[in-house]
UniProtKB/TrEMBL annotation:
Tagged with keyword Membrane: yes
Keyword vocabulary terms for this entry: Cell membrane, Membrane, Transmembrane, Transmembrane helix
InterPro entries from the UniProt entry: ABC_transp_permease (IPR001851)
Bilayer-spanning residue ranges: 6-26, 33-54, 60-84, 91-111, 131-157, 188-207, 213-232, 239-255, 267-284
Protein name (database record): ABC transporter permease
Pfam family, one: BPD_transp_2
Topology within the bilayer: Multi-pass membrane protein
Subcellular locations according to the entry: Cell membrane
Superkingdom of origin: Bacteria
PANTHER family for this protein: ABC TRANSPORTER PERMEASE PROTEIN, SUGAR ABC TRANSPORTER INTEGRAL MEMBRANE PROTEIN-RELATED
The keyword Membrane appears for this protein: yes
């Protein structure tokens, strides 16, 4: 039972990175913008957060620095694709490549750095419960923040006027513009908010989850988060559940290794990516269902007056 509790706890911690990044990308795509640069955003945020935490000794400042880095890069991305109408896919890929190279260059001097001793977190009383205490109630606050964020985003999108406007911009920017809504500014705000969440995911990875800096440490999680939004049909609660599913698959490889199961480590390392491919292949068998759920203007540029 103790091993099951540890596996559940590891799943929640690993899934938090994907959940926060996936929710950020969902905000982007609900506004009609596809950002393929999540991997680069998370890498830059990871090194920004880690470097800040090293120099200040504050995890909070490290996380805020990661969010700021993600928001700034997303602002530049938004200006290019929203105002200058550059291709969203090409610009996103360029951002991803830039983030990988820039973080590797800046992070060279931080590869040997270590953060101070990490604090242990637990909810008093609940963390002492047998089995479920270690599994559910002994996590860093950001793990619970991801759950709260998913609930808050659901309420925002489906229970608020601002969320309705955001979804309207993603469905038909021309109609929203005709009603007097500033489509470009709304899209830019969504892109920056989504970038800040991707930055939060990157900073969580390097400051809280690991905590250290290694070149390329995001290791494809940005791409998995991108696929996760499609897997979840652009619903916050499904993003959260999908993130924990992929997080569980990731942790399963370590669990199988600890059990001494004779499977090549390369196959175990491939599990999260094989699961992603399998899910996308299964979903692609019903394109009509995907089209019925995805924002109608996703990836399409908007030019006022055209």
């Amino acid at each position: 039972m103790n091993e099951i509790a540890l596996l559940i706890a590891a799943t929640l911690s690993a899934g938090t990175v994907l959940a926060i990044a996936g929710l950020g990308l969902l905000v982007n795509e609900r506004a009609g913008i596809v950002n393929l640069g999540a991997e680069g955003l998370m890498l830059v945020a990871a090194i920004a957060g880690f470097a800040t935490a090293v120099h200040t000794g504050s995890d909070v400042l490290g996380v805020l620095a990661g969010m700021a880095a993600g928001a700034v890069l997303s602002l530049l991305f938004g200006l290019l694709v929203i105002w200058l109408n550059t291709n969203q896919y090409a610009t996103g890929l360029a951002l991803s490549l830039f983030g990988a190279g820039f973080s590797a260059f800046v992070g060279t001097s931080y590869t040997q750095q270590r953060l101070s001793e990490r604090s242990t977190w637990a909810i008093p009383g609940l963390a002492d419960l047998p089995v479920i205490g270690k599994a559910l109630f002994a996590h860093h606050p950001l793990v619970y923040c991801a759950i709260v964020l998913a609930v808050a985003l659901h309420v925002f999108l489906y229970r608020s006027r601002a969320g309705l406007v955001l979804r309207a911009v993603g469905e038909s920017p021309e109609s929203a513009h005709a009603l007097g809504y500033p489509v470009r500014r709304i899209r830019l705000a969504a892109v920056c908010a989504g970038g800040a969440l991707c930055g939060l995911a990157g900073a969580y990875l390097s400051v809280i989850y690991t905590p250290l800096w290694v070149e390329g440490m995001v290791a494809g999680k940005g791409w998995i988060a991108l696929a996760l939004t499609t897997f979840a049909t652009w619903r916050p609660a499904r993003v959260l559940l999908g993130a924990y599913l992929f997080g569980g698959v990731t942790m399963l490889q370590f669990h199988l290794q600890s059990e001494g199961i004779d499977i090549p480590t390369h196959w175990l390392s491939m599990l999260p990516y094989l699961a992603t491919i399998a899910v996308l292949v299964l979903m692609s068998r019903n394109p009509a269902w995907i089209r019925a759920n995805m924002p109608a203007s996703l990836g399409k540029p908007f030019k006022p007056g055209h």
